[in-house]
Amino acid sequence: MFAKVAKRAFSSSTANPYKVTVLGAGGGIGQPLSLLLKLNHKVTDLRLYDLKGAAGVAADLSHIPTNSVVKGFSADAQDGIKSALKDTDVVLIPAGVPRKPGMTRDDLFSINASIVRDLAAACAENAPNAAILVISNPVNSTVPIVAEVLKSKGVYNPKKLFGVTTLDVIRASRFISEVSGTNPTTEKVNVIGGHSGITIIPLISQTKHKLMDKEKRDALIHRIQFGGDEVVKAKNGAGSATLSMAQAGARFANSVLAGLEGEADVIEPSFVDSPLFKSEGIEFFASPVKLGPQGVEKIFSIGEISSEEQELLDKCKETLKKNIEKGTAFVKS
């Protein structure tokens, strides 16, 4: 039911040209993400923004022979971010500091919250109709921050605000294939909840591996939930998951563009303003979302889940509600 990825990411032509802006294009995620977007033929106008270095990244990418123009914008240039955002269709926000060993995504909050708040204000003022794809962690809190800023500016459109949880989805596909000895490209795992630790819930019961041994399944779920720690530890203080996150961000951006283009049945999980658990005070939740010309076209239910997954969901909701409230309170205060 989910993750039907747009088919024509690297085709030779596209029905509609799209303007795409990356805010934080000089960083560890921003650079490979910008490269992948340069290779996407749906993108004909690619704008790269960062405090510094974006012009160099843009010059480098501009030598790649695809049908797009790339320009770099910096904070010290007059109207830098305004020019980067003017009339853009899609904004990706990977800006912020990466995790270091021992840090959780929530540890990043004090720094990244301010960065995301200011970039959201710039989007509200210069690109009020753009689809906004939030990558900056902690996503469970940064997406509500963007929502509150957009509301304060009178331009909030819940159908065009997305928390990118695609990394959890691709990790689930890869990790379950390693456990089961299958081809990861054929593994489709629905991942719901949020984008941090125990709020990440891979629904193994909805896969062809639902009879997996409990010990093996528990270890698999834990690895999906805390897969980012593997990378942080392996990089030994030199960064977090940048390359895999860039690929995940590019995949989701391509799906959003395919939806805007009117391609049928484009479905990806995403952390969005959702009705699924709003009665419990949870404003945002990740579940499969159908993407269309207006952004979110339909939010699917989580479907049938096992009793073990229900326990995970109950724990997820407790933490997720606090994460969301933390982001909302940050803007309101």
Automatic annotation (TrEMBL):
It catalyses: (S)-malate + NAD(+) = oxaloacetate + NADH + H(+). NAD(+) binds at residues 24-30, 50, 112, 135-137, 245. Residues 165-331 form the Lactate/malate dehydrogenase C-terminal domain. The active site is at 195 (proton acceptor). The keyword Metal-binding does not apply. InterPro entries: L-lactate/malate_DH (IPR001557), Lactate/malate_DH_C (IPR022383), Lactate/malate_DH_N (IPR001236), Lactate_DH/Glyco_Ohase_4_C (IPR015955), Malate_DH_AS (IPR001252), Malate_DH_type1 (IPR010097), NAD(P)-bd_dom_sf (IPR036291). This is Malate dehydrogenase. It comes from Lachancea thermotolerans (strain ATCC 56472 / CBS 6340 / NRRL Y-8284) (Yeast). The lineage of its organism: Eukaryota, Fungi, Dikarya, Ascomycota, Saccharomycotina.
